[in-house]
Amino acid sequence: MSVIETTSNGLGAARESSPINANDFAELVRSFNDVTARLESTHSSLRDEVATLKSELQETHRRLRRSRQLAALGEMAAGIAHEIRNPLGAIALNLEALTEDLFDRPGELQLCGRVSKAVTRLDAIVGDVLSFARDTRVRAASIRPSEVIMAAVEHAEDLVDAHDIDVDLSLDEDLEVMADAALLEQSLLNLIRNACEAMASVDGPRRLVVGLRSRELRDPERGIIPHAVFEIRDTGPGIPEEVRERMFNPFFTTRAEGTGLGLAIVHRIVDAHGGRLDVSAGHPGTIMSLSLPLELRPEIVGDDVAEDGRSLEGAVRRRVRDNSGRGAA
């Protein structure tokens, strides 16, 4: 190969250039291949990240829809419960007067007793509905969640003893979190009692494992932040997939008794803390995971918390409003 060089007198002189040797060419190919491999790796990583974010976005939308439904149902249930409780109180009062008049008629007194039991049962149902619908206040403070777990397990001791359940605790006792201790205990107690009752019909060893650890999880508003993760594992029969899809719906239950509001109440409490509630198969049994951010969002721990607490229903509605502005379905 030749190259024309221009001299000072304007005349061109031909000069033979040296060809590219094999080593230089091989190095050029290696560099090209390295760049191509890095680009392919970056593309693959970006594709995986997009798939992960898309999946998380869909899950966030699903949780948002559930929160919106629970908030709307809570408002409706409160109105219905109050309308039922007023005439129910009148029935109970008149029944008491009627019972006094029938003290010498045992047959009629027995009928009144049956009616009284039905009234008591209805009043308990109305109480559960109001517990689900009421404007609960979240009073956030720095707490050790391991102590809350211990209190919840102690309060479930009757079921643990009745069904001969072995309890294993795996707790990070140094972990601290901003939360409402009373509401958190109510949530954990509900989940623990559900796990114990699920194992009641199981033949063989019954084991309840309650764990607490810190884990980095994605928050829809703050990115990846540390959470306190509570896990309640049982060795029960497990939960079918079709039931898993509906178990957080108010008034849905597979038991012969109960209002089906327990998990709905737990969900609202967790949602008001900015956390999440998940269910998965335990092989055997079921795993319930309750996750709370170690530090709550500023609007949850506002200046009014110390005096008046924070409205659970308001927190749910704020979360729905804020996320709906980001394009949630």
Identify the notable features of this structure and list them briefly.
single chain; 329 residues; alpha+beta; Helix Hairpins; Heat Shock Protein 90; two-stranded antiparallel sheet; 9 helices; 53% helix; disordered C terminus
Structure in a nutshell:
The chain has nine helices and nine strands. The protein has helices at residues 22-101, 106-133, 145-155, 157-162, 181-198, 241-244, 262-272, 305-308, 312-324, and strands spanning 2-6, 12-16, 141-143, 166-171, 177-179, 207-219, 223-233, 276-281, 286-293.
CATH fold type of the largest domain: Heat Shock Protein 90
What is the strand content? 15-25%
**What order do the strands of the largest sheet run in, or round the barrel if closed?**
4-6-7-9-8
Structural class: alpha+beta
Distance between the termini: 66 Å
List the domain count as a whole number. 3
The secondary-structure element order is EEHHEHHEEHEEHHEEHH
At CATH level 2, the architecture of the largest domain is 2-Layer Sandwich
Q: What Rg do the Cα atoms give? A: 32 Å
Approximate shape? elongated
Spans of at least 5 consecutive residues with low confidence: 303-313, 315-329
Broad CATH class of the largest domain: Alpha Beta
| Main beta sheet | 5 strands, mixed
Helix content: 40-55%
CATH level-four homologous superfamily name of the largest domain: Histidine kinase-like ATPase, C-terminal domain
DSSP E strands, number: 9
Number of helices: 9
* Overall pLDDT confidence: 77
